[in-house]
Amino acid sequence: MSEDKSVETQAPANNQSPIKYFISGGFGGICTVIVGHPFDTIKVRLQTNSTYSGMMDCASKTIQKEGVRGLYKGMSAPIAGVAPIFAISFFGFGVGKKLLQQDDKPLDNTRLFMAGAFSGIFTTTVMAPGERIKCLLQVQQGSGGEQKYKGMIDCAKQLYKEGGIRSIYKGSLATLLRDMPASGMYFLTYEFIKKKVAETVPEGEKLTPTREFLGTIFAGGMAGVANWSVGMPQDVLKSRLQTAPEGMYTGMGDVFRQLMKNEGPMALYKGFAPVMARAVPANAACFIGLELCMRFLNNVAPNL
Q1: How far apart are CA 231 and CA 176, in angstroms?
Q2: Confidence category of residue 284, pLDDT binned at 50, 70, 90
Q3: Cβ atoms 69, 141 nearer than 8 A
Q4: What pTM did the predictor assign?
């Protein structure tokens, strides 16, 4: 297996300009939200509402009461922030790789994980407010009670009025503690699988478009599974903290203590089924969107 072939078949965006990274990452992120948001709605409702018996029960009751549109409640917040989030995430990974690069040698798995974790620092500032608003809108709609927030903008205005910028950024530390290790596993898994796919090609040949496409689907899907396998417990704590009434918890540690006392360790994996069901198609869509958009930009604007 030649080194050139391995490099050639890894994520094609690695050597592209920041502008192309931003555009392609944003497009990949939009693909992720469209495919994955219904699963995310079910996940948040399972994590914060004990009246559902499981994933299918939550989905059927949501559709029965609210229609299919109910599965897309709160999507305006992640859609609004998805372009900068994914652009910054992929850009942060590229910066992390550059900082850890030694003598032009390929990064080992440890450094790939560290570069991915570095990208999690980049994204938290943008992601935390959107996550807070998204969770509040999802839980509000699922509760069946009075609708406090009319939408994303109204929710943001009310949060700011009630507690200022700190209220909007509530749960930021929990988001960071979720995203650093989860992003590390995300990028490591994608790069590792893409490399292994490339190594299946006989010496002197190139990957066929079909095999490369299927490799992207598989690598992207498994990257999503790895991401959530690591980040799920922190995500449960974050959702509880961000949707709780003011004063209910003193912080993430307090959420953890009360959760362990009242519900036990398995509560840290509430919503695991819809997360895993979402992970493969949503993240496969992300990397397909990213690579297709990058190739389009390379054809129509090679000097961008």
Answers
A1: 10
A2: very high
A3: no
A4: 0.73
